[in-house]
Each structure stands twice: as C-alpha cells, then as structure tokens.
Amino acid sequence: MREIAGASSLTDQVVDAVRAAVLDGELKAGELYSAYQLAERLKVSRTPVREALLRLAEAGMVRFERNRGFRVLKRDPHEVVEVFHLRLLLEVPAAGLAARHADDALVAALREELDAMRATAAEGDDARFMRHDRRFHHHLLLAGGNARLAATVAGLRDTTTTLGASTAGRSRTLGEIVAEHEPVLAAVAARDPEAAMRALRAHLAHTAALLLDQLAEEGGRPLTARQAELIGGGSGAVPGGADRDRAGAPAPGAPR
Questions:
Q1: Is the pTM of this model over 0.85?
Q2: Residues 57, 102 within the same domain
Q3: Residues 116 and 226 both lie in one domain
Q4: What's the CATH number where 206 sits?
Q5: Fewest C-beta atoms under 10 Å: which of 11, 85, 123, 125?
C-alpha cells in the first residue's frame, strides 16, 4: 500500500488508498485488519485513518469490530442496482431537458469536457479522466435547471466511488467510455431530446451491467429478475425506443 503524500486532505487520501488496496486485492474481503497498523503502513496519524474508515463504513465497504479492528466487506451488487436505478430515473429525463433547451454555451462546455476526457484517456490518467467525466454529466444535469438534482446525482456517484466500484481500466478502456459519451453530445448538439435520453440510458445501463458482472466474478449474490429489471430501463422512456435500448445494453451476466 502506497504511503500518503500530496495536497488533498489526509482523510481523502486514506479513503483512496484503502479503496485501491481492496480493488488490488491487497486488503481482502472477509479479513480483519488493524486501524493502528494501517496508520503505520500509510505513515499518517490515527485520526485521518479513523475518519476515513468511518466514511468507508458508512458506504458499506468496511465494518468495525469492537476492540478488534475493521473487516473488509464483500461489495453488494444490490447497492449498485439501487444507485444506478436512481441515476437512470434522474439523469435520463434530465438529458432530454438539456437537449430541448440546449444553447451554444452548453454544447461548447460538453465538447470541452469530452475533449479533455479523450486527452486524459490517451495519457492513461484515470483520476483526471473521471473528474472530466463527472463534469460532463454535471453540465447535463444543471442544464435542466435543477441544482438539487445535480447535487443528488453527485452523491450517488460518490457512493459508487467510495465503494471502489469502477469499470475504468477493468471491464472497458477509458477510450470506450469516451465513445459512449459521444452520442450524448451529438444528440444535445442536434437539440434532439429523444436521442439524448436513449444515448444516456444506454451508457448508464451498460455501466451498471459491467459493474454487476465484475461483482459476480468476485462471488457476489446473484440478482433477482426484479432487481435486474430496475437497471434495464430507467425513466423518461421514448415511445418506440425502449426495446431498442434493451437490445443495445446487455443485461447483467449476459455474454458480451
């Protein structure tokens, strides 16, 4: 596990370090670890470690065991379903509103973020890539005129980030993620609400399906048919478009 250094808060850095260690298998699900030893390994005081572990416990990534330490928990696929079901309900119609009311400034802002995503993908800079990815989605949400909606989605994304759930560099390349955003930008630039909703729904459903496949490989519980249905559609359905979307985004666990 890497030592802590840099400009961001120590707590944020410990969260990132623990999450990376879980993803890399350095910290294993089901194993018990000492917070004191973690602080020594990271060469930081116990306070930021305790604060980081509290944050990770709230997200469901670790659990404290009294007078023993903390245990890394298996990531629950049902949490991914809940998060992406909400994102589909909120972001898909927001994309339609953004396209309907798009002006040149919005199109330019989205294009700038997509160009930055493309550049950071070429550089292999995952952290900067994800910042621009979030800004792309944030611009879409704000364009609908609902700042609370944008804040809610930001919180949902924070949940999946804290859980260490990511497809970047695992199930798909950064370049492939860029390609999924291109039709969203094209639809907004064309002021086509239906196309914008279809493109964003396909992107979010595909992301959810890939994450669930990753968790299945880690031995997670299988989804029920109802849970799989929650991420298969979303809201803001376009007449005649639902069947095409379901065909375009494979269901979790389906061959790709």
A1: no
A2: no
A3: yes
A4: 1.20.120.530
A5: 123
What's the N-to-C CA distance of the chain in angstroms?
33
> Letter for the amino acid at 211?
L
DSSP letter assigned to residue 30: T
Q: Report the distance separating Cα 70 and Cα 130, nearest Å.
A: 29
**256 residues of the chain, pLDDT tens digit each:** 655 555 458 898 998 888 878 766 788 878 899 999 999 999 999 999 999 999 888 877 889 998 889 998 877 788 888 999 999 999 999 999 999 999 999 999 999 999 999 999 999 988 789 889 999 999 999 998 899 999 999 888 877 776 666 666 566 799 999 999 999 999 999 999 999 999 999 999 999 888 888 777 766 566 666 666 767 744 444 333 333 343 344 444 443 3
Domain extent at residue 235 = 77-248
The answer to whether residue 231 is domain-embedded is yes
Cross-strand partners of 63: 71
Q: Could you tell me the two tokens for 60? A: 């469901």
Residues 204 and 235 both lie in one domain: yes
8 A C-beta contact, residue 116 and residue 79: no
Measured CA angle at 107 (ends 124, 203), to 5 deg:
55
CATH number at residue 37: 1.10.10.10
CA–CA gap between residue 74 and residue 78 (Å, rounded): 12
Count of domains forming the chain = 2
Beta bridge partners of 172: 168
